[in-house]
TrEMBL record:
InterPro entries in the record: DUF1540
Ranges where the DUF1540 domain occurs: 9-69
Xref: Pfam families: DUF1540
Organism: Paenibacillus antarcticus
The protein's name in its UniProt record: DUF1540 domain-containing protein
Length: 72
């Protein structure tokens, strides 16, 4: 198995559980959705299977949001 380098994700949300030194996200995985789906509860049993192969198009980066956020 080849170890791929981890992508560094910078974040400005300092009250997130995964926020680390130099504003780097420490989450093992990151979930990002378009704002239209921001209210979806991915913690429900059907959440992952419903969005696993789900694809959307975002016109701008400001129309997206990180669903990995977990308050400290």
């Amino acid at each position: 198995m080849i170890n791929e380098p981890k992508t560094l994700v910078k974040c400005s949300v300092s009250n997130c559980h995964f926020w680390g030194e130099a504003n780097l996200c420490q989450a093992e995985k990151i979930v990002i959705e378009i704002d239209a789906h921001a209210g979806r509860n991915l913690n429900e049993e059907f959440g992952e299977e419903h969005f696993n192969n789900h694809q959307d198009n975002a016109r701008t980066s400001s129309s997206t949001c990180c669903l990995t956020f977990k308050p400290k």
